[in-house]
Amino acid sequence: MAEGIVIRKAHFPGRAPLDAYGNGGFRFADMSHRGSILCLPSGIHGWEPADPDALTLEDFARVLEQAGDIEILLVGTGSDLKPLPPGLGQACRAAGISADPMSTGAAVRTYNVLLAEDRAVAAALVAVE
Questions:
Q1: Count of C-beta atoms within a 10 Å radius of residue 90
Q2: What is d(CA 45, CA 124) in angstroms, rounded to the nearest whole number?
Q3: Where are the domains of the chain?
Q4: Per-residue pLDDT tens listing for the chain (129 residues)
Q5: ∠ CA(80), CA(66), CA(101), 5° rounding?
Q6: pTM of this prediction?
Q7: 11-125 belongs to which CATH class?
């Protein structure tokens, strides 16, 4: 019996540079993803923060689960720079992670450079139009 389309959680099981961003998504590894993403040691995951304009510590649970493999967390906050959510800086410092907020465009560029240098980098990137 033929199955219909199967929708799976968005996950690319590897590290890859980001080729493009904008129009509400990202391109990487000859694929595209609509929406926000987490670039982690375990791969690139679709990310759905409850409110992309008001990120919370809970939105970063998956990042903190992989803290032992991350030294730098880039937080792309959209078109404009916004402060880190309350508690995130403290939680990251306690886990040995340096967390840096910046616009999504700056975060993408910085992520690609640090990835090319084989640094222990992760990124939480809010999609921009």
A1: 12
A2: 10
A3: 11-125
A4: 445 544 456 667 788 999 999 999 999 998 889 999 999 999 999 999 989 999 999 999 999 999 999 999 999 999 999 999 989 999 999 999 999 999 999 999 999 999 999 999 999 999 999
A5: 15
A6: 0.90
A7: alpha beta
